[in-house]
Design goal:
about 140 residues; mainly alpha; about 10% strand; 3 strands; about 70% helix
Length: about 140
């Protein structure tokens, strides 16, 4: 297989896998940006609006809109910094924490099913290779 053919195959695999994950989330009323914010807060804890905007790679105003909708859905809450009132922190609400834990568990179950054809050694190799890809992407950002 040529490098070009291998890249085409990998692209196809990512599309197929992505479709399966999107299909699993189809009943979920969150946008990808909203999910990304919730996932960041779930994994990292409270973040400032500025840090969220940087992580999303969008403007502060766009982040405000995303967070507004998550506040309305009662999934996150805002609080002003006691040290600097200009700084606004965003954190998961108890409902948001519960929702993300349930979504994490569902994604983990789905991923386990998806990767069932791999034995433990193959799964470790896949994780190692994807880590190298992620590091390459991050180093170019």
């Amino acid at each position: 297989m040529s490098r070009h053919e291998a890249l085409e195959a990998v692209d196809g695999f990512f599309l197929r896998i992505g479709q399966r994950f999107r299909h699993k989330m189809a009943g979920e009323p969150l946008t990808m940006a909203q999910f990304f914010v919730l996932r960041k807060l779930f994994s990292q804890g409270p973040m400032t609006m500025g840090a969220l905007a940087d992580a999303l790679g969008v403007s502060f105003a766009a982040t405000t809109g995303i967070v507004d909708r998550l506040v309305q859905a009662q999934l996150v809450q805002r609080r002003r910094s006691e040290m600097d009132r200009r700084v606004v922190w965003v954190e998961l609400s108890p409902e948001g924490q519960e929702k993300m834990a349930a979504m994490r568990d569902e994604r983990r179950r789905h991923l386990e099913e998806l990767l069932k054809p791999l034995d433990d050694q193959e799964l470790e190799e896949l994780a190692r290779l994807l880590q190298r890809v992620a590091e390459g992407v991050e180093s170019r950002a």
